[in-house]
Amino acid sequence: MHSPSPRSLVDLPIRRLNRGDLVPCADLCEDRGWPRDEHRWGLLLSAGTGYGIDAPDGKGLAATCLTMPYGSGFTAVGMMLVAGRYARRGIARRLMRHVMETAGDTPLALYATEQGRPLYEDLGFSPVGRAERVGGRFEATGSGGSGSAAHASSALPASAPPSSVPSVTTRPAAADDLQAMVRLDLPVFGTDRTHLLARLPAFADRLQVAEDHGELVGYAALWPSGQAEVVGPLIARDTATAQALVAALAATTDRPLRADVDDRHKELLGWLTEHGLEPLSWTTVMTYGIPELPGDAARRFAPLTVATG
After folding, report:
1. Among 61, 100, 118, 259, which is least packed, fewest CB within 10 Å?
2. What spatial distance separates the first Cα and last Cα of the chain, rounded to whole Å?
3. How far, in Å, CA of 206 to CA of 34, rounded?
4. HSE toward the beta carbon, residue 186, CA cutoff 13 A
């Protein structure tokens, strides 16, 4: 069959995606060597806005892109995928320009792969950080907790006085935790993400919260992706709390774990490596229209997914 010329490809119409596109979106992920993740696409298309270009050969989608609004603060961009047979023909650039035009004055943020970064730099995005993907089977040691006390005291030096050992406990999230999660999340991201957090209980296999004397100081979710379980989002007041949440979630599954951890959290990355996870890849955090992501990066350990920020 005759392949469309580059000119005809970049002229193809862009349309909004809907839940009826879940299978074609998953097919496109598989085409690019990603897990199919229909489950994740369902969340993204319900909480965000998907854009797609139908393949001119009639076989599914030629390209996709997803935007996730975070109030007036910024819009996250992700799931930029182009079918292998249409790669390097200008489709990704056309789709990104459409997203940028649609966003107007709203700042944008995304996680770029090494292959995608040159395109985003050419479109005016600037690198502001980095996330490292780690994965593997979590090897529990010590008394990291599931449900009961998860003191995470292994993160402290042996000489630390007893009074400095945090009294963090973790437990499964309950329905009435949502407001506390939103209050914790707001300064971390600099914007209200209720539309996303409210969907986490139905999306995640496990949603865990951390408390210190009754105060919610962190939360994390575990959700399926291919043969692995992804830890994200991971929001915590400090590294010890993040460790307690990861240990609690890991205790609920026998599948490999995966997480995209902000590169600034070296201590957590080192701890994950000590517990069996290995570096897999990395992405560059990039912004357009703002010099840095809003919020508090010190408490932002891992995103829900690099597709949403």
Report:
1. 118
2. 39
3. 23
4. 8
Residue 76: how many other CB atoms lie within 10 Å: 24
Contact 43, 64 (CB under 8 A): no
**DSSP one-letter string for 164-197:** GS--EEEEE--GGGHHHHHHHHHHHHTS--HHHH
For 264, phi then psi, to 5°, come to: -70, -20
> Residues 183-219: pLDDT tens digits?
999 999 888 889 999 999 999 999 999 999 999 999 9
Residue 308 burial by Cβ neighbours in a 10 Å radius (0-12, 13-18, 19+)? buried
The backbone torsions φ and ψ at residue 29, rounded to the nearest 5 degrees and listed phi first, read -60, -45
Q: Which two tokens stand for residue 90?
A: 């200008």
Amino acid symbol at 161 = P
DSSP state of 156: S
Question: pTM of the predicted model, to two decimals?
Answer: 0.86
Which H helix or E strand runs over 91? helix 91-103
Contacts with 309 (C-beta within 8 Å, 6 or more apart), sequence order: 68, 70, 74, 76, 78, 109, 110, 111, 293, 303
Q: How high does pLDDT run on average in the chain?
A: 88
Token pair 């965000």 is at which residue?
A: 48
Residue 135 phi/psi, 5-degree rounding, is: -160, 160
Report angle CA 275, 281, 282 to the nearest 5 degrees: 105
Q: 248: helix, coil or strand?
A: helix
d(CA 86, CA 123): 20
